[in-house]
């Protein structure tokens, strides 16, 4: 076998031992559930199609289970960790378990939502086990901030995975679905059982694959303008777009005019529209010249 020895990765005993040595107890506040199964992290790396020339950014590496599996394959891995204790310990874990790859690893001790630059070459892939409470904003922030990220695979709560990958017309299609689709082609990429985590969560997890579009939807509206329409449309998702966009447009009549101009039925609801249709509505925003969104 040419692959690194299995004991380079963290098993259940290793994770608990590391956590005990660091005095770490996974917190619900940060949505921490550490992966304790080497086969699962290798499966994530395979599903992400990580290549030997990839520069991977990982958000929320925790004790390093996925980090080590990524380092087996990728050219470089940069991990972004907010937790003081975990951030301080991770470089030592990498050096101890994968000394030959330690120079390929970088750590950024920060809140991912505040990261605007990363050390080394631009990232080509994002692979992460995202805490469910911040999964969507972190994902959208990283895709927006780092346009070099071509492929993304995130593990999130199953319900969040469904929302991200939902198509127009689905009951769970909403703001995350549309905004993720602005950047990428999105699809479910598998399910993850609860028993591969410590502590075992009381929800199932799912993998979501996002492959960046060659370019965003063609529109004269800015991303911010398009997203403002999306937010307004789903803020009152039971209402027709004529009613839901009244606040955004200034009145229901102005919303209707914008919708008709965009070729969208004023009686439609947000859950039936594609990201391209939202972009067309944004192009016809009333008083767009005066800066109204």
From TrEMBL:
Cellular compartment(s): Cytoplasm
Domain Ribosomal RNA adenine methylase transferase N-terminal: 40-214
Signal peptide residue numbers: none
GO MF, one annotated term: RNA binding
Domain of life of the native organism: Bacteria
Membrane-spanning residues: none
Catalytic reaction list: adenosine(1518)/adenosine(1519) in 16S rRNA + 4 S-adenosyl-L-methionine = N(6)-dimethyladenosine(1518)/N(6)-dimethyladenosine(1519) in 16S rRNA + 4 S-adenosyl-L-homocysteine + 4 H(+)
InterPro entries: KsgA/Erm, rRNA_Ade_diMease-like_C, rRNA_Ade_Mease_Trfase_CS, rRNA_Ade_methylase_Trfase_N, rRNA_adenine_dimethylase, SAM-dependent_MTases_sf
Documented EC number(s): 2.1.1.182
Gene3D superfamilies for the chain: Ribosomal RNA adenine dimethylase-like, domain 2, Vaccinia Virus protein VP39
Keywords: Cytoplasm, Methyltransferase, RNA-binding, rRNA processing, S-adenosyl-L-methionine, Transferase
Keyword Cytoplasm among UniProt keywords: yes
Main location: cytoplasm
Residues at which S-adenosyl-L-methionine binds: 33, 35, 60, 81, 111, 129
GO cellular component: cytosol
CDD domains, A to Z: AdoMet_MTases
Entry similarity comment: Belongs to the class I-like SAM-binding methyltransferase superfamily. rRNA adenine N(6)-methyltransferase family. RsmA subfamily.
PANTHER family: DIMETHYLADENOSINE TRANSFERASE, DIMETHYLADENOSINE TRANSFERASE-RELATED
Function according to Swiss-Prot or TrEMBL: Specifically dimethylates two adjacent adenosines (A1518 and A1519) in the loop of a conserved hairpin near the 3'-end of 16S rRNA in the 30S particle. May play a critical role in biogenesis of 30S subunits.
Protein name in UniProt: Ribosomal RNA small subunit methyltransferase A
Species this chain originates from: Streptomyces griseomycini
């Amino acid at each position: 076998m040419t692959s690194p020895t299995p004991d380079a990765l963290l098993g259940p005993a290793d994770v608990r031992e590391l956590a005990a040595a660091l005095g770490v107890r996974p917190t619900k506040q940060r949505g921490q559930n550490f992966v304790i199964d080497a086969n699962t992290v290798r499966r994530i790396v395979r599903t992400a199609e990580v290549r030997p020339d990839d520069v991977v950014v990982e958000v929320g590496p925790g004790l390093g289970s996925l980090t080590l599996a990524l380092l087996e394959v990728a050219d470089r891995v940069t991990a972004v960790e907010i937790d003081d204790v975990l951030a301080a310990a991770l470089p030592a874990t990498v050096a101890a378990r994968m000394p030959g790859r330690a120079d390929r690893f970088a750590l950024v001790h920060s809140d991912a939502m505040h990261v605007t630059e990363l050390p080394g070459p631009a990232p080509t892939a994002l692979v992460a086990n995202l805490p469910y409470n911040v999964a969507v904003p972190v994902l959208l922030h990283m895709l927006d901030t780092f346009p070099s990220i071509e492929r993304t695979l995130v593990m999130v709560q199953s319900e969040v995975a469904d929302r991200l990958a939902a198509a127009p017309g689905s009951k769970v299609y909403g703001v995350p679905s549309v905004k993720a689709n602005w950047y990428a082609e999105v699809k479910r990429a598998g399910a993850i059982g609860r028993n591969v985590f410590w502590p075992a969560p009381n929800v199932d997890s799912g993998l979501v694959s996002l492959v960046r579009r060659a370019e965003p939807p063609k529109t004269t509206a800015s991303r911010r303008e398009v997203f403002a329409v999306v937010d307004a449309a789903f803020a009152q998702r039971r209402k027709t777009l004529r009613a839901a966009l009244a606040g955004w447009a200034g009145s229901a009549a102005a919303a209707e005019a914008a919708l008709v101009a965009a070729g969208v039925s004023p009686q439609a609801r947000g859950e039936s529209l594609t990201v391209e249709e939202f972009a067309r509505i944004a192009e016809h925003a009333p008083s767009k010249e005066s800066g109204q969104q």
